Automatic annotation (TrEMBL):
<keyword id="KW-0328">Glycosyltransferase</keyword>
<feature type="domain" description="Fucosyltransferase C-terminal">
    <location>
        <begin position="213"/>
        <end position="356"/>
    </location>
</feature>
<dbReference type="InterPro" id="IPR001503">
    <property type="entry name" value="Glyco_trans_10"/>
</dbReference>
<comment type="function">
    <text>Protein O-fucosyltransferase that specifically catalyzes O-fucosylation of serine or threonine residues in EMI domains of target proteins, such as MMRN1, MMRN2 and EMID1. Attaches fucose through an O-glycosidic linkage. O-fucosylation of EMI domain-containing proteins may be required for facilitating protein folding and secretion.</text>
</comment>
<keyword id="KW-0256">Endoplasmic reticulum</keyword>
<keyword id="KW-0812">Transmembrane</keyword>
<keyword id="KW-0732">Signal</keyword>
<keyword id="KW-0735">Signal-anchor</keyword>
<dbReference type="Pfam" id="PF17039">
    <property type="entry name" value="Glyco_tran_10_N"/>
</dbReference>
<dbReference type="InterPro" id="IPR038577">
    <property type="entry name" value="GT10-like_C_sf"/>
</dbReference>
<feature type="domain" description="Fucosyltransferase N-terminal">
    <location>
        <begin position="77"/>
        <end position="180"/>
    </location>
</feature>
<keyword id="KW-1015">Disulfide bond</keyword>
<keyword id="KW-0808">Transferase</keyword>
<feature type="signal peptide">
    <location>
        <begin position="1"/>
        <end position="21"/>
    </location>
</feature>
<keyword id="KW-0472">Membrane</keyword>
<keyword id="KW-1133">Transmembrane helix</keyword>
<dbReference type="InterPro" id="IPR017176">
    <property type="entry name" value="Alpha-1_3-FUT_met"/>
</dbReference>
Amino acid sequence: MGVGRIGAVLTALGMLSVCAASGSGHVAKRETGAEAEGAEPWDGAVFRPPSALGAVGVARNPGTRRPGREEAVDLPVLLWWSPGLFPHFPGDSERIECARGACVASRDRRVRGDSRTRALLFYGTDFRASEAPLPRLAHQSWALLHEESPLNNFLLSHGPGIRLFNLTATFSRHSDYPLPLQWLPGTAYLRRAAPPLQQRAEWRRRGYAPLLYLQSHCDVPADRDRYVRELMRYIPVDSYGKCLQNRELPTPRLQDTATATTEDPELLAFLSRYKFHLALENAICDDYMTEKLWRPMHLGAVPVYRGSPSVRDWMPNNHSIIIIDDFESPQKLAEFIDFLDKNDEEYVKYLAYKQPGGITNQFLLDSLKHREWGVNDPLLPNYLNGFECFVCDHELARLDAEKAHAASPGDIPVPEPHIAQLSHMACPMPTPGFGSVEEIPENDRALSLARDHSICLRFLWPHSEKGRIHSCAEVP
Ligand SMILES: *[C@@H]1O[C@H](CO)[C@@H](O)[C@H](O)[C@H]1NC(C)=O
Ligand SMILES: *[C@@H]1O[C@H](CO)[C@@H](O)[C@H](O)[C@H]1NC(C)=O
């Protein structure tokens, strides 16, 4: 799953094309060949075996003063411990220029023990505690990029798991480098005009349900299918994915997820025939919002949403989605959807944010404006490069603080450690999607999965301090 997932992440980030056009942007180019010749002769002081980092630190542009040896040697190194995400191409190291200065990004694990290697970068989905590089070196920060839900790694939703890290980039606004809007390209994406209501009325007359469900990942901690199954008793839902499927997509091409991805224009045109889209995240975590939420809005449908408990904070206005948990039962929700389905005037109020000036949530507007990374935006770095620079700047600042302390230990204290918090991946324990725990069969897969993970963690973590860290896979 790891590799496929990374591929998906890279595609989502537009990385694959960025890679092809490598060397563009602000990243200094290496002068291969010339480098080796230009390397300074060994001064006899210390013998260093050929470094895995090579001479990458001495990248320079023609015409600029050649950086002194000191400078090259001193550049902090950021090691991507998850090599699949290394956001540079080709080669294993690259000098990066960030706001505070330069660092070297590398994916060569041989530099792990180097005193210049100041940070290790991990991808959450790949992170296995049992494979973590231990013992941990005191001078190194651990940085975690985990934009996905805890479904992909429960470990990180537990205090001892997340607190292994110093710096985080997660979906949570509380993380050090927050990515809550990673699936929202911008306001224009939301503003796209909705199809005319008459068109949708026509599809309804031809037998389309008011509600769409398109889900193929069925046993998830959010336990969404149990809710949808109940809802289906009270209102028609057309379900095309593997979960609760009751209809087929119209053409073989669309049915094949290999040819028709979820961003396929023909598929999107088809989905936009529906007035309401069921949008249930695979896990419930504050600020965890995905394309399931934003895509229906792009298509001019109303999301019927369960996911981030703080989703209201991010909506374009206070009347743009239907939140499942506002309704006391699936039946009540069904009645409300039916009411909107029959009252165009009430329905279109949910699309008011598409009108000029309709996006009134200043927090959303500010967050989009101030984020320094883009979603498929050729003019902005993607969040991998953005986070890398964030870590670089943090390490340069930490180095400065350490130097200042060393220069006058009496006046300037040792820099405080920076440790990630549980709020960086705030996901409460999973609960049933509908009904109470007592009603759920003992062998239910969705819930037992979540339960097993947390039981495993609760038992193992207290013992994990002594030497190596165990992983849940080792539970008998
Ligand atoms: C939604 O916003 C409008 C205008 O900003 C305001 O008048 C209305 O009271 C708000 N409604 C709710 C439920 O907050
Ligand atoms: C990084 O976090 C660990 C705890 O996981 C802590 O012991 C260490 O001091 C922190 N390092 C820095 C540089 O903040």
